[in-house]
Amino acid sequence: MVQIGYLGPRGTFTKLAVDTAFNGENKQSFDTIPECIDAVSDRSIDIGVVPLENAIEGTVQLTVDYLVHQVRLPIVAEIVVPIQQHLLVGPDFSGDLSSIGDVYSHSHAIAQCHQFLHNEMPDANLHFTSSTGKAAEMISESGGDVAAIGNKLAASEYGLTIHRDNIHDYSNNHTRFVVLASDKQQINITHEVQTEKTSLLITLPSDYAGALYQVLAAFAWRKMNLSKIESRPMKTGLGNYFFIVDVNEPYDDVLFPGVIAELEALGCKVTILGTYPVYLMNI
């Protein structure tokens, strides 16, 4: 049976994405994103699911940097999940918001609820955890006047109560999760495919005027729609960057080879990170 790893523990949005997308497979949680990616790389598990980008807070930089600098694994699918954040408390909590002294959650989750925390809980101390599930686990064990920010799955998994629901600042909040696997044939997601996407890693040659313009022009004149372009440091010195480009179409034998040949002629280095289906989950 296929073994699926995810950013845990129980109650994370990654676990919610995995439960929705996959049925019946063995599932294993990991404390960190690198641990999950490493497990796919050394074949301890078959599939890894990790967060890539949130609509409000942007890219999960640890995921991108680890895939680029440490472990190169193909992206074989993308799962998009709506995000609803709730304020979770222990079952014995009987106070009001003003009595909560500490709030725990992942840094992205706390940032997604900034206005609520600023307006409703300005005196609470904020603590970052490795995941929303970890925050829920911590307050379930500690008790007292503390709270976590997380989802309904976390509340049910750890016996917590939703003290205030939907505390996120923006209603149209989604997170992209990437599915990583050495063998694409192991992926069995039966949900409807929303679109197809190809992600490229592009390293520019020595900086010169118009370099990025020429890169984008290679896609533009072929009428290839880019849904995202993002720069990240190469970690080789100030001013050295690579670019992650998402193209809203699957890899083909005409357009993409033409783009790659044109970019390589400019002195760029191009790596295909994956060509994959995108699934939008209704949770």
From TrEMBL:
GO terms for cellular component: cytoplasm. The lineage of its organism: Bacteria, Bacillati, Bacillota, Bacilli, Bacillales. This is Prephenate dehydratase. GO terms for biological process: L-phenylalanine biosynthetic process. Keywords: Amino-acid biosynthesis, Aromatic amino acid biosynthesis, Lyase, Phenylalanine biosynthesis. It comes from Lentibacillus cibarius. The gene is pheA. The keyword Lyase applies. Residues 200-277 form the ACT domain. It is an enzyme of class 4 (lyase). Its EC number is 4.2.1.51. GO terms for molecular function: prephenate dehydratase activity.
